[in-house]
Amino acid sequence: MVSGSMTHCPKCNSPAGSEALECPACGILFSKWQERENNVTSGNLARYSIANATSSEFNWTILAIVVGVVILSFLFVQYNQ
Question: pLDDT tens, 23-59?
Fold first, then answer.
């Protein structure tokens, strides 16, 4: 583990050895978890763009993805008839 002091997974609370790099139960990578915790604690959330997106930006992104999937599905059906 990153700090060498974690004996339980911070996500699922399963026991993990002090030298484990990932949780044996849920697979979370402890180094990634620790990096995220450090960023959240320091207020450095720029890396997590979805955390900084407004609900309007998020809604437009989801809408664009859904429209793209619908168009691709339609094209797939048309070309496979």
Answer: 889 988 988 888 888 888 887 766 666 555 566 777 8
Of all residues in the chain, what percent carry a pLDDT higher than 70?
78
Listed in sequence order, the residues at least 6 apart from 48 whose beta carbon sits closer than 8 Å to its beta carbon are 36, 39
Q: Where are the alpha helices (DSSP H) in 1-54?
A: 30-42, 49-52
55: amino acid identity, one letter = S
User: Would you list the domain boundaries of the chain?
Assistant: 1-47, 53-81
Q: Which residue has the tokens 């990634």?
A: 32
Torsion, Cα 23 27 29 30, to 10 degrees, reads -20
